[in-house]
Amino acid sequence: MSEPTLEIQLKTLPNEPGVYQYFDEDGTILYVGKAKNLKKRVSSYFTKQHDYGKTRVLVKKIASIKHIVVNTETDALLLENNLIKKHQPRYNVLLKDDKSYPWICIKNERFPRVFSTRRIIKDGSDYFGPYTSTKTVSTLLDLIRGLYKLRTCNYDLSQEKIDAGKYKVCLEYHLGNCKGPCEGFQTLEDYDEGIKAIKEILKGNFKESLTQFKLQMKEFAEAMQYEDAHIIKEKIQILENYQAKSTIVNPKISNVDVFSIVSDEGYAYVNFLQLSYGSIIRSHTLEIKKKLQESDKELLELAIVELRQRFHSTSKEIFVPFKINLGEDVKVVVPQLGDKKHILDLSIRNAKYYRMDQLKQVKIVDPDRHANRIMAQMKTDLRLADEPRHIECFDNSNIQGTHPVAACVVFKNGKPSKKDYRHFNIKTVEGPDDFASMEEVVYRRYKRMLDEGSSLPQLIIIDGGKGQLSSALKSLDVLQLRNKIAIIGIAKRLEELFYPDDPIPLYLDKKSETLKIIQQLRNEAHRFGIEHHRNKRSKTALNTELETIPGIGEKTIVELLKEFKSVKRIANAKLDELEDVVGVSRAQKIYNYYHKS
């Protein structure tokens, strides 16, 4: 499929947090931005009158948009930073250097200092971050300084100068915040042990530190120093919140490729997330058109090789949703829990959103392709000989046998064709006999179509179980249409699909598009029939004691009488039977009315 127009890309953006990227006609990245709501933020570029000339120039140059969906706004902030650092887009100025967010530095020196900075110097020092909150940084530094005695001076503590007695301990030593390495009161080995522990904290290993903080809080509380205890409690809460850190920056997941796949009848969508030093640096989704009924496993293996070659990835470890074979050089992991599972879930979400975007674009640009896909899916799911381009669904409506009517709704290419809907007044049946009514309307419908030479449907759906289906089949036999038109019945409670001469019902996946279209047909037939019935009956037709029950209206009464056929049966019904028809709240009112004692 050719690249969709900018207008279509805008229409199909999700209302989710994420990062968007603008590209020009040559595929050069122009701008990276973050958004709490991608659709609203990106659309604003094209709907607002921009006063700033540079923004107007940017908007004119935009030829295509890509986006990455993430879990939270914080994730979007961090991912935006990573992508700007990597790609250096022309129209991104504020975040091109490393001054955007604070880092924690462990200086490359004897007796290393630990401090926050917005500037990274490549001198061998260790940097941890970036952090999205200065409060988190200060809390971490407070925690570190509370647990370990660190120097704050910037002296050159070489062994020669210490031995020469060049420095004297400062106030920090006398306050108990430093052990005085400047005068040789602390060994380098002892100091470095603390630095190793600090690095573990900064990598996310908070278990020991939190334990010590909780002990400290308990000691303050026992000493009735409640203000100090409260301060420690706040720090614990902030650290625990930080511990539930973003999966976008996670030191435990380094130099890994993540792949996931989402597929339908004709296409598969493979998302690729590339992680470097714990951060996402790339997201790309590949659309694959199926030639045969290839399995997801085959397609994913093919896509992984293609994407790794295209982006020159040399990662030795990959995360995937199921086991695949990529040879002995790559470690394949199927995450089940924790941060690894979260990052895989994020990849799956991006694949799903990409597929949704493509389907929305197809509906707009190529509606025939969308209809063809749905029809092919229905033909397979329902085991039909032909694609059900023309479907008709029947439903009966009567209340205690009064004004019995039926409805026939028509769908063509998966969409309602309202001009073809038909109402039927039952003429030959006395009383509430759904089976005989169904037999009558099916006969009348197709007798007329045969007489007029109209094109017959490929599929008939009967709202009801085996009984209604058998009644409809009698009419098809009389008209000699048996086996010329596919016919199925749908039972309401479990959404069972019944076929002629097959005692075992078919159950479709609750999320399948085929079942959704069948449910839409059934619901539309029910609505259309009730509407006609309501128009026919007089106002006194519902003058029953049901109307005297507080909170029970006309629509509820119609539903009850349609199901139970009489007021007496409603009065004797069990609570769970009523709940199946009208829900818990209204069922309780009706049940209480008839069981006051």
What's the helix and strand layout?
Elements: H1 6-11, E1 18-23, E2 29-35, H2 38-47, H3 53-61, E3 64-69, H4 73-87, E4 103-106, E5 114-117, E6 126-128, H5 134-147, H6 159-163, H7 171-174, H8 188-202, H9 207-222, H10 226-243, E7 256-263, E8 267-276, E9 279-289, H11 296-310, E10 317-319, E11 331-333, H12 338-365, H13 367-381, E12 390-399, E13 402-412, E14 415-416, E15 422-425, H14 434-452, E16 459-463, H15 466-478, E17 486-491, E18 496-499, E19 502-506, H16 513-536, H17 554-564, H18 567-572, H19 575-582, H20 584-594
Parallel strand pairs: 7-10, 10-11, 12-16, 16-17
Antiparallel strand pairs: 1-2, 1-3, 4-5, 4-6, 7-8, 8-9, 12-13, 13-14, 13-15, 17-18, 18-19
Helix pairs in contact: 5-10, 9-10, 12-13, 14-15, 19-20
What does this structure look like?
There is one protein chain. The chain is elongated, with a radius of gyration of 35 Å. β4 and β5 form a beta hairpin. It is of the alpha+beta class and 597 residues long. α5 packs across α10, α9 runs antiparallel to α10 and α12 packs across α13. The strands form four sheets. Strands 12, 13, 14, 15, 16, 17, 18 and 19 form an eight-stranded mixed beta sheet that branches. Strands 9-8-7-10-11 form a five-stranded mixed beta sheet. It contains 20 helices and 19 strands. Helix content is 44%, strand content 19%. The longest helix has 28 residues. About 2% of the residues have low confidence. It starts with 5 loop residues before the first helix and ends with a helix. This is UvrABC system protein C. The UvrABC repair system catalyzes the recognition and processing of DNA lesions. UvrC both incises the 5' and 3' sides of the lesion. The N-terminal half is responsible for the 3' incision and the C-terminal half is responsible for the 5' incision. One of its GO terms (biological process) is nucleotide-excision repair.
